[in-house]
Every structure is written in structure tokens, then in C-alpha cells.
Specification:
Length: 121
């Protein structure tokens, strides 16, 4: 019985491939931060376009924070929470969403950026 073995990977050996994979995965948090910033900036642009920037404090309240391996995108606590009420509406005002549309608009771009960072082109 004969066996034929074949090395899969780069000519430099599997160590280089493993190190490359580790480096890509280590860049994931930065790619997630970048994606969250894209959504935050898009939300600010939508809010501004809808005239929700009377003082600018509400726009500054749109932010993201890191929680473990997640990025939570939303509004800062008071006094910058004002735009949250525009997002969902109140009993006397209709909703003027800005964060949800920003996430929807940016979703494919953010996912592709993260994919390129981790998997490569």
C-alpha cells in the first residue's frame, strides 16, 4: 500500500499560513469598530437631513460602545438621548427613524469590509 501526501498552503509552509490567519482574525475588532463608525456616521447624516439637529447635542449622542465581542450602536445617556425619541416616536410625534435606516443602508458594506479583513480578497 502506498500513500501520497501533499502539503497544502504556501511554499513557506503551514506556519506562515497559520500566522497570516491569526493576523487577520486579530484585525477583526478594528474592522468591527470601523463598521460601527460607518453606521453611526450614516445615522448622523440621516438625522441631519431630517432636520433633527437643532443644537447638535442629539447628533453627538449617536455613538457605539464595545461590549465584549459586540458593538452596540445607539444613543448616549442624557442629555444626548433626545434623538432616541425621534427614532421610535412618542404619543404626540411620529417616528423619524435615522439609526435603523442607517444600519440597513450600511449593512452590506460593513459585512463586506469585515469579510475582506478576515477572509481576504
Amino acid at each position: 500500500m502506498k500513500f501520497k501526501g501533499e502539503l497544502v498552503g504556501s511554499e513557506d509552509g503551514p506556519d506562515k499560513d497559520i500566522n497570516e490567519a491569526i493576523n487577520r482574525v486579530e484585525r477583526l475588532p478594528q474592522a468591527m469598530d470601523s463598521g460601527a463608525n460607518k453606521i453611526v456616521n450614516a445615522a448622523k447624516g440621516i438625522a441631519r437631513a431630517k432636520g433633527l439637529n437643532k443644537t447638535g447635542a442629539g447628533l453627538e449622542g449617536i455613538m457605539f460602545e464595545k461590549e465584549s465581542n459586540d458593538r452596540l450602536i445607539g444613543w448616549a445617556p442624557r442629555p444626548n438621548l433626545h434623538l432616541y425619541f425621534h427614532e421610535i416616536g412618542t404619543y404626540k410625534d411620529y417616528p423619524k427613524p435615522h439609526l435603523r435606516p442607517a444600519a440597513d443602508q450600511s449593512e452590506n458594506e460593513v459585512i463586506e469590509d469585515i469579510r475582506r479583513t478576515v477572509v481576504g480578497d
